[in-house]
Specification:
The complex is a heterodimer. By secondary structure, chain A is mostly beta strands. Chain A is built from no helices and eleven strands. Helices cover 0% and strands 51% of the residues of chain B. Chain B is built from no helices and eleven strands. The chains are: A mainly beta, B mainly beta.
Chain lengths: 106, 114
């Protein structure tokens, strides 16, 4: 069983496009975490949110607790955004999605 | 600057050997975690600790052990390495007192068990 589902699994976009990555979860949570993993393997935290919306530069994360759904948006995508984006939720334990692999083509 | 480091970054070992992966953080975080990452599975929690002398099993703890003797370190030991434990291992830490539980990840250790 997968407590966290991400879609799409793979995404290719042209530079400048608006990108949306979705995360749905089936457990009660206290917070949701969006992570970015670059081809070199390093994982960095993008957002931690428990309600509403957060924005950092060209990245926007939203969460709807009632619908158990979160989205990560990237505006004006750039090749350097190419990475795997991972959704993780914090309930009574940690659950991770399998990631969305994004490739942005110049 | 505060950081979280892992060593070694790459390790090749043989089946049956004991292996210890080091994780050291200078954030002074209470919480530390070990994950493994495999294709098709995403990150899976192996063990975690909420403070000195505290350790807890995660989703995939069989064959692994940890100990927490100080705030900075959480070494992960594979008691008798198996080929199924070939993976990339990530250590992470978070500050429970902040209430946010945002995790900071180490660079990872790629372990190959032959």
């Amino acid at each position: 069983k997968n407590e966290v589902e991400q879609s799409p699994q793979n995404l290719t976009a042209q530079e400048g496009e608006f990108i949306t990555i979705n995360c749905s979860y089936s457990v009660g949570i206290s917070a949701l975490h969006w992570l970015q993993q670059h081809p070199g393997g390093g994982i960095v935290s993008l957002f931690m949110l428990s309600s509403g919306k957060k924005k950092h530069g060209r990245l926007i994360a939203t969460i709807n607790i009632q619908e158990k759904h979160s989205s990560l948006h990237i505006t004006a995508s750039h090749p350097r955004d190419s990475a795997v984006y991972i959704c993780a939720v914090i309930g009574n334990q940690f659950y991770f999605g399998t990631g969305t692999s994004l490739t942005v083509i110049p | 600057d505060a950081e979280i480091t892992q060593s070694p970054r790459h390790k090749i070992t043989e089946t049956g050997r004991q292996v210890t992966l080091a994780c050291h953080q200078t954030w002074n975080h209470n919480n530390m975690f070990w994950y493994r990452q495999d294709l098709g599975h995403g990150l899976r929690l192996i063990h975690y600790s909420y403070g000195v002398q505290d350790t807890n099993k995660g989703e995939v703890s069989d064959g692994y052990s940890v100990s927490r003797s100080n705030t900075e370190d959480l070494p992960l030991t594979l008691e008798s390495a198996a080929s199924s434990q070939t993976s990339v291992y990530f250590c992470a830490s978070s500050d429970r007192t902040s209430g946010h539980n945002e995790q900071f990840f180490g660079p990872g250790t790629r372990l190959t068990v032959l």
